[in-house]
Amino acid sequence: MDTECKRDMNRGLSTDIDVTFDVRRDTSKGRDPDTHSKTLRRYHRILWSKPLPSGLVFVLDDLTPGCYLHHKSVAGEFFLSSDSVIPTYNYRPDILSLTSADALEAFDAISYTIGGMMVFPGFQIDRKWTINQARGCEGLIADRFDLTLECIRRHYSGGNSPLADVLARYSDFFGLFRDFRGYVEFFLLQDLVGPDSSAVKIAAPFSDFSRSPVPSTADEYREYREATTAFLEARNQRILRSRQCVA
Description:
Elements: H1 3-10, H2 33-36, H3 38-48, E1 69-73, E2 76-84, H4 93-96, H5 101-111, E3 117-121, H6 131-137, H7 145-157, H8 164-169, H9 171-175, H10 180-186, H11 218-246
Antiparallel strand pairs: 1-2, 2-3
């Protein structure tokens, strides 16, 4: 049993991961689970406190005042925040007209499981956007995680993307994982890439960052929802298997 699990047990906390848990359930109404769900924070710390490709254990603590998750070692110091990475676009009237209420509710529910969550550096550099802010505010990304991951792939290969500048600002964080495959494997994202991690599986609509990627027809939204749901289901199962391996 690793030291993080022992610490949780000493604090009376479960070290299990419930991949069906909707993190809105332990968040007060009107508050953001990324900030206020204690379960989500614990899940992130348990899952991502593990060896990096270098062999160094990326130990995260959730007790540093004013910080969501914190790491400090010879690899550097990192202040991480949580990001719900799957937009269902349920706040848009045009999207509401493209799907049924039941389908949207089911999509919302799975998007708030641990499979729909990531951590990124949470501090601003030179008062510029963080990665979380940039992916939400950049219209050619529109908060989509498949497109964010494609930008990260291009960052590692030296390519250009709508997020190139912000990813470059956090190059020390991405350097922890050596390359794109290392990043994918660390965060259990294999189900969103091809077998050799050379390509990201991007749902429609997508036109190489030349127009808005928000679905505009019922067929586009259905394809986006189905592809994204399949990824979330697969990642949740991958997360579950990863915990069984260390139990």
